[in-house]
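Weekly structure sync - notes
Attendees: PM, LS, DV (DV joined late)
Agenda: review two folding runs queued last week.

Item 1: First target. Sequence and structure tokens pasted below for the record.
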Amino acid sequence: MYENNNMNQGAAAPEKKNGGSWAWLICILVGLILFVLGFALYKIFGKSSSMKVKDYSESFSVSDVRKLDIDMGWGDLTIVKSEDDNIVVDAKNVPEEFGAEVKNGTFRTFHSKKKFRMVNLFDLWDNDSNETTVKIYLPEKEYSSFALDLGAGETTVSDISCDQLRVNCGAGQLNLSNIRCSSSDIDCGAGQVNITDINCEGLFDIDGGAGDVNISGVLGSIDADQGVGEFEFTGTVNGNIDADGGVGEMTFNLTNPSEDFAKNGGKYKLDIDTGVGAANVYYNQG
């Protein structure tokens, strides 16, 4: 376990913990297997040439919407700010079962729950010229909750303000920017996670699987669990830091002064535990 001591401003406080070479190799292999499995599932459960698809476009009034519940089985999802007071969904090459609705104050999308089918492993890396894409335009509003359930693909979300943020993603890339929330719970499987300009007043809880995680912004406190890959946070934490890493470095570039996390008399607690990789903390950054 790494516990913070008093440090010079702008200095790093690394403590490296090295496991055995076998443990390191096993963790790396597990991470690679998770990533390949996620990509394979994307192809297995994703759109096939025999699957009936459609283009979908619909508009909804945001006046009665308090909650957002977005379900994407596979494909690329983009969520941006709308220019009016309507929620607009523009989808290409989605399965026939795909749709959206507003019910009991919740805007939700629903995706195909496709049954398992056999595939040729040599076809897993074939290019698909008809990728599934969904773009959602959301009016600027304070939502009570924003939930994202993602399978495989690339997801980009920007300009969201909500009370509770929850993200559950399988395999692919997750990009979040300009997010305002009271609390957040992010759980990722395999792939890259990029979160920029986030302001989370309360607890920011993130579980990373296999892949790098990069976060910047202002957090109330942070609870981070990282499996395989590098974890880096840049910004301000106005609360405790509790981080556990598996394979890869964990780095915190803090605007806070070192006194905030002083072992004796500091305002907040700092607890970083790493497996294979270094724990680095830098203060007065920016």
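Item 2: Second target, run right after the first with the same settings.
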Amino acid sequence: MRIDIITVLPELLHSPLQHSIMKRAQERGLLEVCIEDLRAYGLGKHKQVDDYQYGGGAGMVMMIEPLSNCVETLKAQRTYQEIIYLTPDGVRLNQSICNQLSLKENLLLICGHYKGIDERVREKYVTLEISIGDYVLSGGELAAAVLVDSIGRLLPGVLNDETSALFDSFQDNLLAPPVYTRPVEFKGQKVPDILLSGNFSAIEEWRYEQALQRTQQRRPDLLAE
């Protein structure tokens, strides 16, 4: 899979995508993440990428021309199954969306900044708008990093144990059950006996019951879905 990211602040994306699982995915050739600096397409001597909004109001808007030129340049090189704009008014990201996007070959992400992007970019190019939550960030870069991580870890061969992702929270609309590791007892707190029993069918049943109980307590809205 290849993911291209258009941003005015590429340095914000380098560190989150160069460590741990995302680093391993790229080293194994399973994921390619390319960061495109929008300022390379900026206008004039100062490489301008933003301007005042028509009609007045606070905040600058990312201009249509640099974004259009950047998107068109990238589209000339490959076909994107989705062109995604990270925005607070997009559909809220969930595991189902991540699962679907992990099956794509090429994705293009546009990171908003300032007061957002010229609406004509959204109308002409964007095929999917995604929000990572009901709050506002300074820009779309951190949201893009979240999206790349949530997709990349699902690619076959990225996780050392390929079944691990199948038991993550939100798969099947359930939160993950409690997990334990050594020692068996610590300051009076013990690991549940069932996990030490070696009876794997009983363990799986216990885990399912715990996941269901935790979801009922903490996120009943998931069960309603």
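Discussion on item 2: Helices lie at 11-14, 20-27, 64-75, 95-101, 119-124, 141-152, 200-218, 220-224.
Action: LS to circulate a short write-up before next sync.
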